[in-house]
Description:
Distance between the termini: 50 Å
Number of strands: 7
Order of helices and strands: HHHEEEEHEHEE
Largest sheet: 5 strands, antiparallel
Structural class: alpha+beta
Oligomer: single chain
Number of helices: 5
Helix content: 10-25%
Radius of gyration: 19 Å
Amino acid sequence: xxxxxxxxxIETEEQERTRLAQAPEGSLNHYLSTLPVTxxxxxxxxxxxLPWQQPRTQQAYRVVVVPLEFREEALxxxxxxxxxxxxxxxxxxxxxxxxxxxPDYPAGGFRIxxxxxxxxxxxxxxxVTALASLSYVSGETLHIPEPPCGSCEDYGLFxxxx
Length: 162
């Protein structure tokens, strides 16, 4: 438990789970209340697979996004400051869909807003591991080096424009 949770500034994990569970059964928030938080760090620019398993939907889907821009939750009219304890994962992320087998969320940069509470209950996708399972790309053997210890230039990942 963080210091801010202990002194009552931010809700605890249990308080967040209880708040989400108060949403109507079958809603996204109620579903999220049943899942653990799996991403603790700031998710900007990470690859995140959203939790799209049953019972959220009739069929499990894989939707992978990159959170790009965080948007704070708007306060009700007349309220100038969020009451204490503040919500643990409030707001939403504008995300680019980079992989999807869901018919309503095409990959290739399609943008969607995803609640922060959903992002933190997703699964971080490691691109090196995901690509390592591929044996061929365009007819050529795919070689993925060990995660770089040096600079990006050492691995040909960045080339200066000159």
